[in-house]
Amino acid sequence: MSAGFEADADRLAVSSGDFGNLAERAAAVAERLERALDGAHGAWGDGPVGQAIAASHVPPAEETLAGLRSLSGRLTAFGQTVGAAAGRYRGSEEDAQQAITDTAQG
Asked: How far apart are CA 65 and CA 61, in angstroms?
């Protein structure tokens, strides 16, 4: 038999704020990576060897940068979702308590 499901709405609400800080950190990492990649542009040279190096390294670096850029927004959105869930859990608990009170008085 299952013990059921339990959520700590207060902890969820507090934790939801942590995602904003994580989003800021991800954005800062993306900015640093972008500056590093911009500074490295052409460092391998324009010859055939340099072009081969660029062809194998630039696309993955750009994919990584794009992923980091989008991570900030996804973390922000997830934090908002967690905060909204905390509010819904809290509301459900209050509704259930009121229903029990109403039934007991009833």
From this structure: 6
- Nearest C-alpha neighbor of 15 from the set 83, 85, 93: 83
Contact status, residue 61 vs residue 37, Cβ threshold 8 Å: yes
pLDDT digits (tens, 9 = 90+) for 66-89: 999 999 999 999 999 999 999 998
**H or E element at residue 81:** helix 48-105
Q: State how far the Cα of 31 lies from the Cα of 1, in Å rounded to an integer.
A: 51
Residue 70 C-beta-side C-alpha neighbours within 13 Å: 5
In this prediction the pTM is 0.71
pLDDT mean over 22-48: 91
Nearest C-alpha neighbor of 93 from the set 14, 26, 22, 13:
13
